[in-house]
Specification:
The chain has helices at about 15-25, 30-60, 65-70, 75-80. By secondary structure, it is an all-alpha fold. The longest helix has about 30 residues, at about 30-60. The two termini are about 30 Å apart.
């Protein structure tokens, strides 16, 4: 996984611990099953993110900078995730 600044959906460590307890409870108290479930979900989420990033890179490559007059480039500057793009 690329080292990127990410926002946590958990405001406190207490919320994180409560969520961990909830996941373990949903897996019948089996911590290995809970970990397995989360790893599979994470793998799917990372694959989906990679597909979206590839689609964004293709869209950016297909858009003519001259046609759009660079009006969309502000999105690149505001993005939390690096969007691959070259002006060449």
């Amino acid at each position: 996984m690329a080292a990127q600044a990410r926002r946590s959906e958990f405001k406190t460590s207490v919320e994180l611990e409560e969520t961990v307890d909830q996941v373990i409870a949903e897996c019948g108290g089996d911590t290995r099953a809970a970990l397995r479930t989360l790893l599979v979900a994470n793998t799917h989420a990372m694959a989906e993110i990679a597909a979206i990033e590839a689609e964004m890179a293709k869209l950016l490559a297909d858009v003519s900078r001259g046609y759009s007059r660079g009006n969309w480039e502000w999105l690149l500057e505001r993005s939390e995730v690096r969007i691959p793009y070259s002006r060449g």
